[in-house]
Write a structure and sequence with these properties.
Elements (H helix, E strand, L loop, with lengths): L9 H13 L7 E5 L2 E9 L2 H11 L7 E5 L2 E10 L2 E9 L10
C-alpha cells in the first residue's frame, strides 16, 4: 500500500529521528524512505563495520546478519523489524585478495 501523505510515513521518520537522538554516534548512512513502502527504511552504509554498529544500536541478533552479493560485490546485510519499522541495512564492499597486500 502506497502512502498518499507524509503523515503516513510519520512512524518511519519518527523512528529515524529517535535513533539519531538516542545514538548520536551511529555512522551516517544513505537512507531511503519510499511512498511505495511507507513502513520501511533502507540503510546503505560504506563498510561492513558500520553495518555492525547499526545492528548493535537496533538490538538485532547477530544470527540475522548475512553475507550476500550485490552485483559483483560482496555485501553484509540484515533485515529486521524494530520499533514497528522494517529495516534493510547493508554495505557492499570489495573483498580483499591475497594480491592486495602483496609487495
Amino acid at each position: 500500500m502506497s502512502a498518499e501523505s507524509l503523515g503516513e510515513q510519520a512512524a518511519v521518520i519518527t523512528c529515524l529521528a529517535g535513533l539519531a537522538v538516542g545514538h548520536p554516534t551511529l555512522p551516517a548512512a544513505y537512507i531511503t524512505v519510499s511512498r511505495h513502502a511507507p513502513g520501511e527504511l533502507s540503510v546503505q552504509l560504506d563498510s561492513p563495520g558500520k553495518v555492525e554498529a547499526w545492528r548493535e544500536a537496533l538490538g538485532v541478533d547477530a544470527s540475522l546478519v548475512r553475507v550476500d552479493r550485490i552485483g559483483t560485490r560482496s555485501s553484509l546485510e540484515f533485515d529486521a523489524t524494530v520499533y514497528g519499522v522494517d529495516f534493510h541495512v547493508y554495505a557492499d564492499y570489495e573483498q580483499a585478495t591475497s594480491e592486495a597486500g602483496a609487495a
